[in-house]
Design a protein that fits this description.
The protein is of the alpha/beta class. It has helices at 6-12, 16-27, 75-87, 94-101, 105-118, 147-156, 192-202, 244-261, 266-281, 286-297, and strands spanning 43-44, 51-52, 59-60, 131-138, 167-174, 181-186, 208-212, 225-229. Strands 6-5-4-7-8 form a five-stranded mixed sheet, covered by helices on one side. The longest helix is centred in the last third of the chain and has 18 residues, at 244-261. The protein is globular and about 75 Å long.
């Protein structure tokens, strides 16, 4: 795996001019002036984030309509933040961006969330290959809550369920080096009808799927080649039957949230899941992640 090092990043983007030129190349490569139809190269306007036509003076702004529009934060800091989000294993928190760039927390949080949005795939993938399906719960254990909060949780949790108060997440992971992964935060308890409808909408009929022995997947054998591994009997692998790949992804999610962000609310959980999924899918092509984010900016 070829890595994108900080030395390479600083050499490519030493200042705001280099960052702006990169955006111009992505958005306006081989630009023909829409006003005078001149095909000569546009020239940078000094002290302004724009380029102008040498014939008629028509100007274009590479940052217009992007996350960089009207921002007072330097483009170098924005590019560096994108670099950190795409090259670190567990991402970076807004507090770390605040300390690194000496900016206020509100600005750092906006930068972090805007980059997370760019890391999200807008098109929901359709799975055509072997997949693993699983669900998990993300959040702290009640025994670590404050006394007042723990008593409230114990009072409201009539079923005595250890997952109470946690965020429920459903996932489908495609096996293979270039396999995609889909995650979704589910606020209501997942039942069989919901799980079946979601799998049918996401996975091509007749394909091989693997799940644990949860009852919400009990009838999927009618539509798919369904392999089950029984975790209750402490059986984790039976030949190709396992969900270890998606379990590994869940571990990555929990390590990232616990180690980097400490806590994530239900409101923003999906953004963080999408960010971690992006790094997971491109984990063997680290040098491509940064350029992919910049193309999504455009």
């Amino acid at each position: 795996m070829k890595k994108y090092t900080i030395k390479e990043f600083r050499k490519q983007y030493p200042d705001d001019d280099a960052c702006l030129h990169k955006l111009f190349e992505i958005r306006y490569k081989n630009l023909v002036c829409p006003k005078c139809e001149n095909d000569k190269p546009f020239v940078r306007v000094k002290d302004r984030r724009s380029y102008y036509c040498t014939c008629c003076g028509f100007q274009v702004y590479p940052t217009k309509g992007t996350i960089f529009e009207k921002t007072t934060t330097s483009l170098t800091d924005w590019f560096h933040a994108i670099y950190l989000q795409t090259t670190t294993r567990n991402g970076v928190s807004a507090k770390e961006l605040e300390r690194t760039f000496n900016i206020c927390y509100k600005t750092a949080l906006r930068m972090a969330h805007q980059i997370k949005i760019l890391m999200s795939d807008k098109d929901v993938p359709k799975f055509f290959d072997t997949v693993e399906i699983d669900e998990t719960y993300i959040g702290g254990q009640a025994k670590f809550y404050s006394n007042a909060k723990r008593k409230k949780v114990e009072k409201e949790n009539t079923k005595k369920d250890n997952s109470y108060g946690k965020t429920q997440v459903f996932g489908i992971l495609e096996r293979g080096e270039k396999g995609k992964i889909y995650t979704e935060v589910v606020l209501d308890p997942i039942n069989r009808a919901w799980a079946e409808d979601k799998v049918k909408s996401m996975v091509t009929f007749g394909k091989q799927i693997y799940t644990d022995n949860s009852q919400i997947y009990a009838k999927l054998h009618r539509l798919y080649q369904h392999g089950i591994v029984n975790h209750i009997e402490r059986k984790w692998v039976r030949g190709p039957r396992h969900v270890n790949t998606i379990e590994s992804f869940w571990n990555q999610v929990k390590r990232t949230i616990k180690g980097t962000h400490v806590h994530v609310s239900n409101r923003h959980m999906q953004k963080y899941l999408n960010e971690i999924a992006f790094r997971w899918e491109h984990r063997n092509n680290q040098e491509e992640m940064f350029d992919l984010i910049l193309r999504r900016v455009a």
